[in-house]
Write a structure and sequence with these properties.
alpha/beta; about 15% strand; six-stranded mixed beta sheet; three-stranded mixed beta sheet; binds coenzyme A
C-alpha cells in the first residue's frame, strides 16, 4: 500500500512513522485509519523478521494529532448504523494493532494530542511530550464519547482521572498528563528530539525478545489474582532464562561485556520519518 498521509523511514532497527496531514493537525479519517492499520501490520511483520526493535510515532507540523477528523465524522450522519459500526470497528482495530506491536513504541508529542490523538498517545509504550503540549479527551465537548480509545486510555490513566477527564472533555497540560500516567517524560520543545533519542537508545539496549515478552506480560497479568498470575509469570521467566537471548544477557553481565544485541544501536538523532 502506498501511503498518502503517512511518512515512514527505516533507521537501523528503528521504524519511524510521521502522521502527515498537518493542514488538519494530523486528524484521521477513514484513509488515515486504513493506512495506519496497514502500516501496523507491516511493522508487526518486520518485527517478526527481527528487522525492527522500536517504533517512533510523530506528527508533522505544529500538532501531534487532533484526533478523529471532525469533518469526516459529521458526514457519518448519513451512514446506516451498520456502516457506523463498521467504521468504528476499523478505528478500534487500528488502535489495537498499534497497541499490540511486539516492539517498544515511542510517541513524540508536540502541540496537542486530543481525542483520538490522546488515544494514540495511550497506545504508545513511552510517551515524550514537549512541556507546552495540550492533551484532552475532548469528545464530550463535541457531543460524542471517547469510546474506541477508552480501553487503551483507561489502562494508562485509571478510572479516577477518566471520570473527570472523559466527562468534561477538559484540556490539560503535559505535566498533568504525566501525573496521570499518559505521558512519561516532559521536556522543553528544543529538547524533544534529544529526549526521544535517549528513550530509543534505552530500548535498543534491552533484549528485543525480552521487550516483546515483557510487553505481552503486562496485559496478561494485569487484574488477575496473584494465585492465577503465578503460573503465568513463572512460565514467562523460566522461558526467558533458558532462551538464547536470556542466556546471552545473563552471560554478558557475568563476563562484564555488552550483550550481542547492543551492536544494533546505531540510529540517527533525527526522530521523525
Ligand atoms: N478534525 C478536522 N479538522 C481539524 C481537526 C479535527 N479533529 N482539528 C483541527 N482541524 C482543522 C481546523 O478545522 C483548521 O482547518 P481550517 O484551516 O480549514 O480552518 C485546521 O485544522 C487548523 O486548526 P486550528 O484550530 O486553526 O489550529 P491550531 O494549531 O490553532 O489548533 C488544535 C490546533 C488541535 C488545538 C485545534 O485545532 C483543536 O482543538 N482541534 C480539535 C481537536 C479535537 O477536539 N479533537 C477531537 C476529535 S474527536
Amino acid at each position: 500500500m502506498t501511503y498518502r498521509f503517512l511518512e515512514t523511514r527505516r533507521d537501523g532497527a528503528v521504524e519511524r512513522l510521521t502522521l502527515n496531514r498537518p493542514d488538519v493537525r494530523n486528524a484521521f479519517n477513514e484513509h488515515v485509519i486504513a493506512e495506519l492499520t496497514d502500516w501496523a501490520s507491516q511493522a508487526r511483520e518486520a518485527a517478526a523478521r527481527h528487522e525492527i526493535r522500536a517504533v517512533v510515532i510523530a506528527g508533522a507540523g505544529k500538532v501531534f494529532c487532533a484526533g478523529a477528523d471532525v469533518a469526516w465524522m459529521s458526514k457519518t450522519v448519513h451512514y446506516t448504523e451498520d456502516e457506523n459500526l463498521r467504521d468504528a470497528m476499523a478505528m478500534s482495530r487500528m488502535f489495537a494493532a498499534i497497541n499490540e506491536l511486539p516492539v517498544a513504541v515511542i510517541g513524540r508529542i508536540q502541540g496537542a494530542a486530543l481525542g483520538g490523538g490522546a488515544g494514540l498517545a495511550a497506545v504508545c509504550d513511552i510517551v515524550v511530550a514537549e512541556d507546552e503540549a495540550l492533551f484532552g479527551f475532548t469528545e464530550t465537548t463535541l457531543g460524542i464519547v471517547p469510546a474506541v480509545i477508552s480501553p487503551f486510555a483507561l489502562a494508562k490513566i485509571g478510572q479516577a482521572a477518566a471520570r473527570e477527564l472523559f466527562l468534561t472533555g477538559a484540556r490539560f497540560s503535559a505535566a498533568r498528563a504525566k501525573e496521570i500516567g499518559l505521558v512519561h517524560d516532559v521536556v522543553a520543545a528544543a529538547e524533544l528530539d534529544a529526549a526521544v533519542h535517549r528513550h530509543v537508545q534505552e530500548v535498543l539496549h534491552a533484549g528485543p525478545e525480552a521487550i516483546a515478552a515483557a510487553k505481552a506480560l503486562i496485559p496478561t497479568v494485569w487484574g488477575r489474582p496473584i494465585a492465577d498470575a503465578m503460573p503465568i509469570t513463572a512460565a514467562a521467566i523460566a522461558a526467558r532464562r533458558v532462551s538464547p537471548e536470556g542466556q546471552e544477557g545473563l552471560r554478558a553481565f557475568m563476563e562484564k561485556r555488552a550483550p550481542t544485541w547492543n551492536k544494533d544501536t546505531k540510529v540517527t538523532k533525527d526522530t521523525k520519518a
